[in-house]
Amino acid sequence: MIGASSKMFRISLWFLKPFRKPYLWARKKWPDWFAERLHSGLDLDTSRMLPKFNTFHRLFFSRGFDTIAISADDIQNLTTAGQRGPVVYLMRHWGQVEYNFFNQLFLKRRFPLVAHNNMVRMGHWMPNYRIFPIIFQKLDRFFVTGEWPYNATLFDLKEALQAKKPVLYCLNLPRGLGWVEAGHEAQREIFRELLAAQSDLGPSIQLVPLHFIYDKHPGHAKASLSDILLGNLENPGYLRKMMLFLRNYKKRAVARIGEPLELRKLAAPYGAETDDATAEGIAIEVQRAFEMESRQVTGPKLQNRRRFLAKIMESAEFREQLASIAAAAEVPTAKAEKKTLGYLREIASDINFTLIQLWDYFLSWLFHSLYDGLEIDKAGLARVKKVAKNSALALVPCHKSHIDYLLLSYIFYDNDMTLPHVCAGINLNFWPMGSIFRKSGGYFIRRSLPNDPFYPLALKGYVKTLMREGYFQEFFLEGTRSRSGKLFPPKLGLLGMMVESFLEGGVEDLHFVPVALGYERVLEEGSYLQESKGGKKQREKFTDLFRLPKFLRRRYGKVYLQFAEPISLSQALAPQAPSGRTGAAERKKFVAELARSICISINEVSTLMPSALIATALLSFHAHSLSPRETLERANALFAFAKQSDTRLAGNLQKQAPAALEEALQHFIAEGLVREHEDLEGKFLKIREETRHHLDLYKNQGIHAFAPAALAQLCRDKAPSSYEKVIDLLSSEFFFAPQKDAASPIPWLSGIALPVIESYWLALSVIARDPFEKWEERKLSQRILEQGEAFKLRGSLEFSESLSRFPIQNALAKFLEMGILKNHLEDMGPSGKKIFSPGPETELRAETLHLLETLLGKARQEPAVPANLSNVYPLLSKGGTEPV
User: Fold this and answer.
1) Which helix (H) or strand (E) holds 394?
2) For the residues 150-168, what does the mean pLDDT come to?
3) Which of 71, 49, 85, 48 is nearest to 260 (CA)?
4) Which pLDDT does position 871 carry in this prediction?
5) Which residues touch 627 (CB under 8 Å, ≥6 apart)?
């Protein structure tokens, strides 16, 4: 093995040579004194890890090292390696800080300490009573033999591995004054030695990569002046290491222990020879493992935004598509390029890690001020980390709140993963938050694609380049925040672009990670309820920031974050025929199926909270009043069913369900969502009609756990032969794999699906009874809601919560798909608003209406609007023939 010795040390030895003869004379003169101080069993190797440190080491390192977390998976990697065979640790770069950190970690976790490393000396960290005897004995050998006993000459690799003593090698040794040249040749020699040692060993040598990353900042693609003078962030120089460690150890330094690599398996493709080709191949594989682990934490190097957009514009593939679109639209090339670049600037993020660090401190304060804690699926996050090493990644969370944008990035940053580029609506690009979001990794897209063909080209080019460059992405499949508490139907535009980009090549695989976010209480509850009843969505603006103190005056419970199994796009596409990859219709169908699979995965890992159980129990009663005992009994029955179905449960439900349910009920009483009264018979609860929508919002947060069994039970009871039709009709409301035989021990469970079914019945009843020529979608939804209020007064509508705009909009979209409604694309205009008129499928409309009435147990209704209701709601008196 190549030794390493500084010129200064060799000069020091030269100055010691004149003292050799006096020393040898003294050794002969006082042999007993020397014999007492020279111990033959003393380990003179000062590169080994230490069981104890001196005071200076404890003052300098101990406080900093204790704040650098190490995951359970990393510890498991160490345990696994030790069980399989002799362990050789590998560090990409040499360094005192890195080596000392792992020394302290191994001591703390009681792992065997490294017996030798090829670069780092530890003598100056030894207690005096240990280092002085070693120095004296090394000097003795030097004076006796004339050669200094370097650590490399004191160590035998084969003996150490046979004795199961770990060894550590630094792969990229320093260059420059006083150090040996350490390029590929040094690495090849390391692996040649290991291969030679392996030939005399039974079990395969386990190569364990040790990572110490000083800063989560990925660094810049183009070296800055500080990088040139002080070394880059990946391998900083002495001064920069000290600065980074002292500044970053609390929050930004990261340590990782990679999965063990078996030397025999790495050498097998090369015939397990000990030649240069085998050693070179192993070195490449090991460096690749280091690169994958580092990029998972930091992500790719940051590129200047202007250069990144120029790279997109200069791509041959992109220019060809741009020229084709420009020719078809008869637009001059220069004008097309200018317009497309303008769209790219409107879209692209501009990450700034200085702002991200400040943002991280702010979000830590904000989340601790708003919430009682974050419950994170650590096992799921570990799976995501594993997948991220070898694949492009797209996070697909459900969208419950504006907090979603911030939460996932915060969790990734705090768990030492690269920040995702988050797709956000252009409505969030308002001053000053737009700039902050953009510099935190957000990129902005328009809610609906304009008729201009250059916009989708720019968006797809940006998304594809992010994917190919290895950046994580995050987008919300629903396209907007869910105001109902359950998943909104997926929007396929961006997902389709990602699938197309993948099919066009440049990426081996793309994994979609469904993420379920759950809030015990959502900040925007008030606005959601207003919109549910037909109110207009308020546009985000600067003055909204002044409302933050109002939100900080109360707590919003816990937040739950769960990760589903990542979905490999290459595996999902594997069963597809070649036409499924190239044909537009087949690809569209595949994207729709993929979107539904993602939604199902989100529901499968969504957390069931006590508030959802209590709200479901309260709304399941049709009596005028109910007792607290009856409510808790029903909630406990739901809890038992959910637990039996392996639904993911909130932590307080797992630990002490009765107390958690009682607390949730008391919260609803305190908030006025349900009134508690007392008479001679005892306490009873009364649900106010005006709060049923609010309770329905909580109920919908857990309806995913009960919908499969509820719909199966309802169809068995009311329409045994119509299960498939019902599931298809409600496919925009509930996302689960069909379970026709799903059983439930709860006889009243089927009732939880009735409000949604009643919303569909209401929408179809109005369409059937009140003919119209053309209506814009929002106006038609509003008309249905107003008619529903009249139906409620008449007694034809049972559930107040069925008067919600969101299931009615889903119903209209489904009726459009079925042909019950017709969409007038020619009348949409630049705003992209849908214009509906009655469709040709009148027979299907009648069948569907009859099915809904059967499920609801309603008598067949006369197809006419009661005349006496026209005075209650003036809109009804218009006759329904008013064009848009």
Assistant:
1) strand 392-397
2) 91
3) 85
4) 39
5) 682, 683, 684, 685
Alpha-carbon separation of residue 194 from 205, 265, 270 (angstroms): 8, 13, 15
CATH no., domain 8-298: 3.40.1130
- Helix ranges, 504-544 (H): 525-532
CATH topology agreement for domains 8-298 and 305-603: yes
Evaluate if residue 274 carries a pLDDT over 80: no
pLDDT the model gives residue 3:
40
Contacts of 877 (CB under 8 A, 6+ apart): 870, 871
The whole-model pTM stands at: 0.87
Q: How far apart are CA 464 and CA 460, in angstroms?
A: 6
Share of the chain above pLDDT 70, in %: 88
3-class secondary structure, 560: strand
- DSSP one-letter string for 396-412: EE----THHHHHHHHHH
Helix-, strand-, coil-residue percentages of the chain, each rounded to 5: 55, 10, 35
Residue 176 pLDDT > 70, yes or no?
Answer: no
**Residues whose CB falls within 8 Å of the CB of residue 322, separated by 6 or more in sequence, listed in order:** 333, 336, 337, 340, 454, 457
List alpha helices for 163-221, DSSP H.
184-198
Quick one: tokens of 764? 């179809």
262 phi-psi bin (left φ>0, alpha ψ -120 to 50, beta other) = beta
Q: Looking at 222-226, 460-464, 748-752, which range is the least confident one?
A: 222-226
The size of the chain, in residues, is 884
Which CATH architecture does the domain made up of 755-878 adopt? Answer: Orthogonal Bundle (1.10)
Distances (CA, A) of 723 to 711, 815, 855: 8, 18, 11
Instruction: Please check the confidence at residue 5 and state whether its pLDDT lies above 60.
Output: no
Cβ(579)–Cβ(586) below 8 Å: yes
Q: Look at 164-178, 193-207, 239-253, 709-723 and tell me which has the smallest mean pLDDT.
A: 239-253
Per-residue pLDDT, averaged over 146-174, amounts to 88
**Token pair of 194, please?**
């290991």
Query: What are the extents of the domains in the chain?
Result: 8-298, 305-603, 610-705, 755-878
Q: In this predicted structure, what is the pLDDT of residue 238?
A: 61
pLDDT grade for 761, boundaries at 50, 70 and 90: very high
User: How confident is the model over 431-447, as pLDDT tens digits?
Assistant: 889 999 999 999 999 97
CATH of the domain spanning 305-603, picked from 3.40.50.720, 3.40.1130.10, 1.20.120.350, 2.40.50.320: 3.40.1130.10
Distance CA 344, CA 443 (A): 10
Query: What is the arithmetic mean of pLDDT over 504-519?
Result: 94
Residue 257 DSSP symbol? E
Buried (b) or exposed (e) across 258-287, using 16+ Cβ within 10 A? bbbbbbeebbeebeeebeeebbbebbebbb
Domain 610-705 fold is Arc Repressor Mutant, subunit A (1.10.10)
- Residue 392, strand partner residues: 510
Cα(687)–Cα(669) distance, integer angstroms: 10
Tell me the two tokens of residue 351. 């990450």
The more confidently predicted of residues 4 and 764 is 764
| Residue-wise DSSP of 824-872 | -GGG-TTTT--EEEE-S-HHHHHHHHHHHHHHHTPPPPPSS--GGGTTT
What is the reported pLDDT for 827?
Answer: 52
